[in-house]
Amino acid sequence: xxxxxDNSYDKNLFIFGESVKTEFGxxxxxxxxxxxxNSPDLQLMxxxxxxxxxxxxxxxxxxxxxxxxxxxxxxxxxxxxFEIVLGTQQILNAYLKIFQLVFDRNxxxxxxxxxxxxxxxxxxxxxxMDMNVLTEEKVSPNEEIQSxxxxxxxxxxxxxxxxxxxxxxxxxxASTSNSFDDVCNMNVxxxxxxxxxxxAIYNYQATTLFATVAExxxxxxxxxxxxxxxxxxxxISRDEFSKKFGSLLKM
Length: 251
What we know:
Blueprint: E1 2-3, E2 20-22, E3 25-27, H1 32-37, H2 39-45, H3 49-62, H4 67-73, H5 81-87, H6 89-102, H7 111-114, H8 118-131, H9 143-158, H10 165-175, H11 180-184, H12 188-211, H13 238-249
Parallel strand pairs: 1-2
Antiparallel strand pairs: 2-3
Helix pairs in contact: 2-6, 5-6, 10-12
């Protein structure tokens, strides 16, 4: 069992799937099956204050809210996520459901203690997210920049092949000795790590083959480091945004 007391832990240790001991109780990994079954609640956990603000703003625009009503919503941007969770029943229910799952071996765990202060809340939130390879998408407090980020993401999504959990599971089963049941009972870190490694091995084999018939083919390393927590950065600074789009905004 891994013992964790603060945020300075090595996330690579999660590959072994051992439960984590904290001052609040023992936290276990969700299986990949549980991860998929509880995906909507986990996605809510991965949202920070700005994600929630933009979500509500888009909802208000969709129902024709006035400019003054949308302007009042801006106050959310300065509120700690801890307060938003406690004040929003739907989001709070999502947290409680996931916490009940990961603390299910601890009948005496006190959720009141976890939600007693922002520090405890943020510590457990980050730990649970890391244990299940959940990352926060980068979001900008500047709304013009955020619009540019969202457009960039839509373009990338349209130009890339989407991979579903079925693709992940079948790739692992087809490429390893693991059965479907084996994969479903792994934790998310293990599933994603194996899937990424299988891809790296096949890339290595393909580039090695091409290198025999073509010049200047870069051979991919099959055992290269894979960062499962890397967040794709679509964000740009205010200065970069002004250089690219400033003239358009003045028209």
